[in-house]
Write a structure and sequence with these properties.
The protein is an alpha+beta fold. It folds into four domains: 3-142; 159-269, PAS domain (Beta-Lactamase), CATH 3.30.450; 289-434, Beta-Lactamase; 536-679, 2-Layer Sandwich (Heat Shock Protein 90). Helices cover 54% and strands 17% of the residues. The protein contains 20 helices and 18 strands. It has helices spanning 3-11, 13-35, 42-65, 76-99, 106-158, 163-171, 195-198, 202-205, 210-213, 216-230, 271-299, 303-318, 361-366, 387-390, 424-493, 499-526, 540-550, 552-558, 574-590, 648-658; strands at 176-181, 187-191, 235-240, 245-254, 260-269, 322-329, 334-341, 352-354, 372-374, 396-402, 410-416, 536-539, 561-564, 569-572, 598-606, 609-616, 663-667, 673-679. The strands form four sheets. It has a six-stranded antiparallel sheet. The chain has a five-stranded antiparallel sheet with strand order 2-1-5-4-3, sandwiched between helices. The protein has a five-stranded mixed sheet with strand order 13-15-16-18-17. Helix 3 runs parallel beside helix 5.
Length: 687
Amino acid sequence: MNPLARFHSAFGGRRAILALGGLYAVIGVSWPLTQVGEALSSSAAIIVVVLVSGSGLVLLYGGYGLPRTDIQPRFFTTIASWCLRAIGVVASILLFIYLAGQLSDPVNNFLILSALAGVAGFGAGAYDARAKSRTYVLEQRNQELQDTQAELEETLDRLAASEQRYRTLTENFPNGAVALLDTELRHTLVAGNALEETGYDPTELQGKRVQDAFPPEVVDVVEPHYRATLEGESTVFELETPEQVFEFRTHPLTDEGGRVYAVLVMSQDITDRKRREQELTDRIRQQQVVADLGQLALETDDLDELMHEAAQRVRAALDIEYCKVLDLDPQADELLLRQGVGWKPGLVGGATVSAIEADSQAAYTLASDRPIIVEDLKSETRFTGPDLLRNHDVRSGISTIIGPSNDPWGILGAHDTDPQGFSDEDVTFVQSVANVIAEAIERHQYQHELEQSVTSLRESNKRLEQFAYAASHDLQEPLRMVSSYLQLIERRYGDAFDEDGEEYLEFAIGGADRMRGMIEGLLAYSRVETSGEPLEPVDLEAVLENAREDLQVQISRSDATMAAESLPIVEGDHDQLRQVFQNLVSNAIQYSGDEPPSIHVSAERNGSRWVVSVRDDGIGMDPDETDHIFEVFSRLHSRTEYEGSGIGLAVCERIVERHGGEIWAESEPDGGTTVSFTLPPAGEHIE
């Protein structure tokens, strides 16, 4: 017995489901509460609570209601097994993704996906358990029948010498018939209530040979088995008629010398059993079709491929002649036969059906919020079939809208040339296929809109970058002229100014210098994307060392100490990452307060990303201001307190975003500041 089976045996399938549901319900509420504000945002926490706790409640509700279903208690363990296997599969996939370095939030992803997998496993397990329950009931009934037949055989063997006893038994044989045939295959005894349904009179069969009593197509089936029984072999076979199915069992009757002197034939009408088995097989096949189409919808971007495959699979599953997918054109008030199978050549992609005619089946379907079933179009009073159906002698079918009833995309129709009824399961099957197509269309439209938005956003960003660069570049020349003339005035006429004039001139020169710094910063900000080098493996320790060399004068002047832990190799732009380190270390020195600056650089792996941090023990800031410091020209202090253009951190953010990462700050007043940013490991290119 495997571990899972031992667990179910010891704990019980239903208790396992309830325990699993309770566990997810508790974890879904408690886990996010411990993570909000640290590793989990409020919105993410709500998502975790809703999906994980909701899944747990679904499992609790489902497990609590199992005794009221038609599922045998012995198969509750099947449902629990499906739940645990689904969770195990998701866990294995997430583990593989985690080991591959592609999972950034393993705990929350595991909680959400495993909880949803548990619910999905419950649904699949319930379906499997219900099928097994039905099969179990059929097997029990079949076993009871076989036991009855075995008992009958034993009784007939014991009472072979008494024809009257045979007759008494056969006349009371339920839903079947019994016959004794001699070595010439002549009926010596015929009885049983099933003969009344076949149209044969037992008294007329008495004394007739099989070859004379039945039509050739029946003789061709039964005679070989009877001949084999005369040779001492028991047989079991089925005989199908247009309306019924019979199961035959033959047994040789022997005398004391072992010689076969008669054939005992027992037959039973198994039409209902075969019909139930066929219905179960059809349901399983239909569910498999829906699952396969759902998988195809996820794998392909070609809607016509999905629609054509859906039409083929629906026709095969329902054993009908035609299936179609109609595409609604609201402006033209018509439906296009976009895809279909069985129709005359040349119609698919060109034929149209009216969507507004009052007596049109298509219009009637579009106006309904449920599938439309037609058992015989010739006797239908609600509407008439369009030319497309009449020209193909369509008599029956199912049609349902694709998409929401208030905004349908089109119609899925399944049709046949014979009048017939359709079961509720058939209708549900067609609706499920329509839902798969609708979801694929919605996803395709969303993807198309998203791609258009991304393209538009990229073009807009490109134009803004070009504008910022052009504006900043064009401002450089007049600003240089202003600055040059101010310096010229200072050199030639500086002695002529009084104290106020010198102060005003100093303000003007300082303002021009600051303006030049701001323009240079804006130029650097606008050229992050256009002037960057392709991303490649970069050693962050070498990058930091280069940045330290560039800041050596500032570090020496401020008597700063700088320590760095082991830094990784990442996928990045060496020069831009050096600029990030320069800006962060320079800020740490500038805002160190009265004490010599102390700076610490570290890195740690978090899922599929490296988190690099630059920490100082300077003046810090209000935590509410940490989001604003990355805005362009944002300042927390006046220029008389601290110099700077207010664009350095904005450039850092732009560079980090180009690397596919994020940047943030954590700080407290007089408690220092830690600026952290994420970078991809080497080998992971960012699009």
